[in-house]
Design goal:
This protein is an alpha/beta fold. The protein has 14 helices and 14 strands. The strands form two sheets. A seven-stranded parallel beta sheet has the order 3-4-2-5-6-1-7, with helices on both faces. Strands 10-11-9-12-13-8-14 form a seven-stranded parallel beta sheet, sandwiched between helices.
Length: about 400
């Protein structure tokens, strides 16, 4: 699998998990936390006899469920361990396929809370044999309003189960939940709210009207850049930017909530295999998507807080690689970005506007700040069609 040494979160968490202790782990994305819980669970499953569903892994989004399912498939390839991925956002046929797979049984289920609750309510899944419950990206699940679903699922599992809670941040609500659902637990904390050292960060102080020309200028002719990921805060900004980049001869795809699941997955696959070099996305991709070789991350606007900033730019410089993160900051967002710098305890380098765009940038700077700043609906985007099998089962 290419592993040579354990990452800090793996080094600290795996011994506790192998000892069957409950674990509360705080680690930012890109630290190897998925392997930190998958590997010891697979080790136990290959050594201990078990009946029924042994391990349940809850993920906040379909994208994360798919990603963890794929990693699990790779790790377990030469073992007898079986798994099923259960996640929403698809048609009724996939629900029926998931039902049949669940009836057939599996050692591990990877699921989103809402979809799993639907199967529980319909009597398709029995969690009474669960020995290990894993809540991945727990802070994200709470932010998305899944707390009642999570409690409902937990109530269906045995009290003597092992519980592993992994979170990128540690707000008070996570500690409260931990005390409610876990026995005496071990705590692991790894580098919160600090970008990876190998990310070269910079910002352009530029108004909205000059942002698209600036991004186009930065990317034009840069053939050495294999993968560029651009984050924007609204669907309209995402669509408009993707359209403009395509008009200038660049291959760019957009990913946002208007797309169905198969469209998102196809564009991600194209991005991953290098046939689509530029992706423009809303924050649906900010967490958890692990694609190697992203050269540059561009924040078309300033994220809401330091954690979101770290999550966004953490898509580059994965593992031992280096990467570049550029943020475009208008005058309204300068105070917010300074606050982000304070929380990260670092100053991000200010970059000079390219001479070719200096006149446009100066003209935009003289305008009064707009109220909308790109809010609303838009149209466009590249057209891709594709699908993924709605569940996977290994025997």
């Amino acid at each position: 699998m290419g592993f040579e040494t354990a990452t800090p979160v793996q080094e600290q968490a795996i011994p506790f998990i192998l000892d069957k202790k409950d674990v509360l782990a705080c680690a930012q994305t890109g630290t190897g936390k998925t392997a930190a819980f998958l590997l010891p669970i697979l080790n136990r499953l290959t050594e201990e006899p078990h009946e029924g569903i042994d391990t349940l892994i809850l993920e906040p989004t379909r994208e994360l469920a798919v990603q963890v399912d794929q990693q699990l498939e790779g790790f377990s390839y030469f073992t007898p361990v079986s798994s099923i991925a259960v996640y929403g956002g698809r048609d009724g046929q996939s629900m029926e396929q998931e039902k049949r797979a669940l009836k057939g049984g599996a050692d591990i289920i990877v699921a989103t809370p809402g979809r799993l609750i639907a199967h529980i309510n319909l009597g398709y899944v029995d969690l009474s044999t669960i020995k290990c419950l894993i809540l991945d990206e727990a802070d994200r699940m709470l932010d998305m309003g899944f707390i009642q679903d999570i409690r409902g699922i937990i109530n269906k599992t045995p009290r003597d189960r092992q519980t592993l809670l992994f979170s990128a941040t540690m707000p008070p609500k996570i500690r409260t939940l931990s005390k409610q659902i876990m026995n005496k637990y071990e705590e692991v904390t790894i580098a919160v709210s600090k970008p990876a050292e190998k990310i070269i960060q910079g910002i352009y102080e530029v108004e909205d009207g000059a942002k698209i020309p600036l991004v186009a200028h930065l990317l034009t002719g840069k053939k050495r850049l294999k993968r560029v990921l651009i984050f924007a805060g609204t669907k309209r900004s995402v669509k408009d930017l993707a359209i403009n980049l395509e008009k200038q001869g660049m291959q760019a795809g957009d990913i946002h909530s208007d797309l169905d699941q198969s469209e998102r997955e196809l564009r991600l696959r194209s991005f991953k295999n290098g046939t689509l070099p530029i992706i423009v996305a809303t924050d649906v991709l900010a967490r958890g998507i692990d694609i190697k070789g992203i050269d540059v991350v561009i924040n078309f606007d300033v994220p809401n807080d330091a954690e979101d900033y770290v999550h966004r730019i953490g898509r580059t410089a994965r593992a031992s690689a280096s990467g570049v993160a550029i943020t475009l900051v208008n005058r309204k967002d300068r105070h917010r970005f300074r606050r982000i710098e304070e929380l990260m305890e670092m100053k991000v380098h200010r970059l000079p506007i390219p001479p070719e765009l200096a006149e446009l940038a100066e003209a935009e700077a003289k305008k009064k700040p707009s109220k909308g700043s790109g809010r609303g609906r838009g149209r466009g985007g590249s057209k891709h069609k594709g699908s993924r099998k709605p569940y996977k089962k290994k025997r």
